[in-house]
Amino acid sequence: MQSIQIGLQIVLMFFVLVSLHEWGHYYFAKRAGILVREFAIGFGPKIFSYTKGETRYTLRLLPIGGFVRMAGEDPEIVIIQPGQRVALQIKDNQVTHLFTDQLDQRSLAIQGTVEQIDLEKQLFVMLSIEGDTERFDVHPQAIMVTKGRETQIAPLDRQFGSKTVSQRALSIFAGPLMNFLLAFVLFVLFVALSGVASNVKLDTVNADSPAAKAGLLAGDIIKEVNHIPINADREKFIDLIQKSKDQPMNWIIIRGQEEKQTEVTPALDNGSPKVGVVVGFDSRNASFKEVVTSSWDTMVYWTKSIVSGLKKLVLGQFKMDELSGPVGTIQITSQIAHEGIKPMILWSGILSLYLGLFNLLPFPALDGSRLVFLGIEAVRGKPVDPSRESVVHFIGFAMLMLLMIVVTYNDILRLING
């Protein structure tokens, strides 16, 4: 039963992280008036889909992300050309449906050969019907039907490329932005539940270590080292030990309600002074101000750590077999989920922050690359050729999928080899 619960937690966590990221794209695209054709979670074959309003919502087989497909980002699949026979369904003097095949089954529709058609600007179609030419106005939300597949037309003012650079940039940046906001909310929740650190505490004291020989016990709170107050500064505590070399140190600890003094002499381990302890924090309930400030500090700390890791990744300072993919991430998440809800909340916040930062890398197919192209457009005063940009993103996506296969292979090997 516990394994099922943990599995559901993992699925829910990844679903929320990806859904909120894509919802950011979706929401700001809709606000800009862009037609959103599809809101997808996952890649590959569709498992489930339904249509509401103008958008098709789909769940796909490969749970490695998601996407929001906006009109005008890619070339339209269905194009009606002059000389092509079509059937039109009319309502209130406007075309609501354009059928491109199975015309013999459209007995109630108006049929003819296309002479002129404009589904982006003037929204009309001109048909030759039994030798006569007739013009029909097309509804801005008209549907084209081909092989049973319905596609809503996208007038120019509903396409991604027709919007201002700032509107397009916001619709792209909104995905990572939602991840940043979610990360901060999760960090706030974690701090509110865990409290804030008030003192450095010994979580573990290794047997026969200098700390054990000095009489220290797990649970002892470190008040002072060499007459320097420690408070909740773990880095200061560790730094004092490193600087002491093998010289005796004067510690003042609190055990229960009693204050004790002891002398600890670090032992050199591979040239580094060690006392044989694992330190944590003694915590207390946080005020509202402390929750906000501590959450922000946590956000800044993990942002720096993630950026440092991404920098090493970009510079090739990681070996390929050191990288971990979806399988490895799920394995780590499972281990953390076993530790309880608070570590899971913190880990979810870290992953959300990572997802936002990773997507801002200027690598083709990622949000960061799309923002770079928009920046170039803002400087040049005209957009990069959409077909060339599409090729760049396609190549980038293929490279990301190849990398995903490699790191997943690494994950599986690690699982097999233990």
UniProtKB/TrEMBL annotation:
SUPFAM superfamilies: PDZ domain-like. CDD domains: S2P-M50_PDZ_RseP-like. GO terms for molecular function: metal ion binding; metalloendopeptidase activity. The keyword ATP-binding does not apply. SMART domains: PDZ. InterPro entries: PDZ, PDZ_6, PDZ_sf, Pept_M50_Zn, Peptidase_M50. Its EC number is 3.4.24.-. Residues 187-257 form the PDZ domain. Belongs to the peptidase M50B family. This is Zinc metalloprotease.
